[in-house]
Amino acid sequence: MKFNRCGLIVLSTLLPLLFSSSAVLAQPIPVYRERLRPQFHFTARQWTLHKLNPVIRPEPPHGGEQGWINDPNGLVFYKGEWHLFANGAGSYWVHAVSKDLLHWEELPPKLIRDTVLGNTASGSAVVDWNNTSGFGTAKEKALLAFFTGWKNKVQCMAYSIDRGRTWTKYKENPILAHADRDPKVFWYEPDSKWIMIVYGPPGRSYNFFGSADLKNWEKLSTFPDMFECPDIFQLPLDDDQENIKWVLSDGNGSYVVGQFDGREFHVEQQKEALDYGFNFYATQTWSDVPKKDGRCIQMAWMRGGKFPDMPFNQQLTFPCELSLRTVRGKMILYRYPRADISRWPGDRGQ
Fold it and tell me: Which one of 52, 257, 334, 340 is at 20 to 30 Å from 218 when CA atoms are compared?
């Protein structure tokens, strides 16, 4: 772990996301048994898909690297569980849940590709607390996932009313035909409406849309010079709860600080870098974190790296807490691993 000159933590040397060994060891051979693995690697299981031979990898359609994982998606907290989704094998979302962001239980993959929408690409997830979508029930709030249907690059929605265990794609998909990809959806309380940010034209831009029911969307504004995987969140500057800033970040974690008025993002400080390494991309923060918790937790894809003869490829960063601080006259994001990582009972000498 190192600090760069701006006081940011460089995560390219951190261990991947912690993973429960018992679940992995219960899987059929082959299983990777290097010391400290599989406790520390997080990747897609094979489930009913083709098993991945760790030595002989036939080309699709008879094989292929089904152990691939990349963009974290749909990070949402609901009823005591931190939900983690991520792109798996380019066609579905890997799914895992955790009670503490330290130990994870992987569930069957979700949002499998279909012939109408194609592969399920990146997106986000929220809890529909006010049932604006109409999918919730008297007993259960609806979890909503938003993703890009890759066949025609359209924005789509799915819902779950059993705490994320099963999902149904909305029958009227797509909800937005606007190109291009990576829908980020969040609730804007002052106007009691939903906002969606989508990466796409003109050029490398973020396009903002608004909706009252999550099904019908209107264009609000365009914000230029941003690339892929949009994310937006609020943080107090220097822990001052009377001075809340909005942070808009792009795929590599670079960010601008300012204010959002429900239609447009107004810049107060030009773009800054969050990380300087290649192994940090598709940054996302968890939505619907309870106010009593108050943390802004971020995760990213540690792209790249080679894992010869291993039944996995790629990894995710450890969840980190973000804060916004004044450093030499600038508003700078700080990123720290969860404080309770010290509870992990593994070999601390590694």
Answer: 257
For residue 23, what is the enclosing H or E element?
helix 21-25
Residue with tokens 């400080």: 269
- pTM recorded for the entire structure: 0.84
CB 239 within 8 A of CB 313: no
Q: Dihedral through CA 289, CA 292, CA 295, CA 296, nearest 10?
A: 40
Residue 206 one-letter amino acid: Y
Indicate the class that CATH gives domain 2-343. mainly beta
Q: For residues 18 and 104, is the Cβ–Cβ distance under 8 A?
A: yes
* Residue 28 burial (10 A CB sphere; 0-12, 13-18, 19+): exposed
What's the rounded mean pLDDT across residues 328-346?
A: 81
Q: How far apart are CA 303 and CA 139, in angstroms?
A: 40
Annotated catalytic sites, by residue?
A: 71
pLDDT in tens, 278-301: 889 999 999 999 999 999 999 999
Q: Quick one: DSSP state of residue 25?
A: H
Q: Domain-by-domain residue ranges, the chain?
A: 2-343
**Region for residue 182 given its phi and psi (left: phi exceeds 0; alpha: psi -120 to 50; beta: otherwise):** left
Q: Indicate the Cα dihedral angle 254, 260, 265, 268, nearest 10°.
A: -70
Q: Give the residue from 156, 145, 203 showing the smallest Cα distance to 178.
A: 156
